[in-house]
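Q: Convert this sequence to C-alpha cells.
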Amino acid sequence: MQPRELLLIGMIASACVPALAQGPTFGFGRTPTAEEIKAADTAAAPDGTGLPPGRGTAKEGAAVYTQKCAACHGPNGTGTPLHRGLIPLGNAKPVKLDESLVPYATTVWDFINRAMPWTQPGTLTPDEAYAVTAYVLYLNKIIGEGDVLDQTTLPKVRMPHRDSMIPAQPT
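A:
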C-alpha cells in the first residue's frame, strides 16, 4: 500500500473510535438510587464529622477481629502489619515510624469501615468498625483495652506522630 492509502485508512479508523465508545451498554448495571449513593458517600473527618452513632472497645474488637479479620491479618494482629511506615519525600532510604501513616484516629476508623473486611468491604456495622478500630489502636499501644471509642471519643485520640505530619495545604 501507498503511504497515502495508509494515511486514509488511519484517518477512517480514528474517526470510528469515538463512535465505538458510544456503543450499546448491553443492559448491564443500573443507575444507583439516591439512598444507595448516600449510603456509599461516607467519610469521617479528623474532627469526627461524618462518624455515625455507635461504640466499641478493644475487648469487643478482639472478638470481631477473630471472626472477620484474622484470616488475613493473623491471630492477634501478628500476621500482616496493622500499621505502616512513612517514607519522607526527598529521602532515598525509607524511615519507618510506627503508626505514622495517619495523623488522625478517625482515618483508621474510616479505612476499616470502608475497606474491611477485604472480602466484603463496607459490611461492618458502625459498632463493629468502632470495636475493631479500638482493637487495632490498642494493639499499637495508642489506647487502653477498656477505652470506649464512639463519635465523641474517637476524634480525641491522639496519634503518636500527629504533629510530625505535614498538614494539607488549601487549594
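The mean pLDDT is 79.
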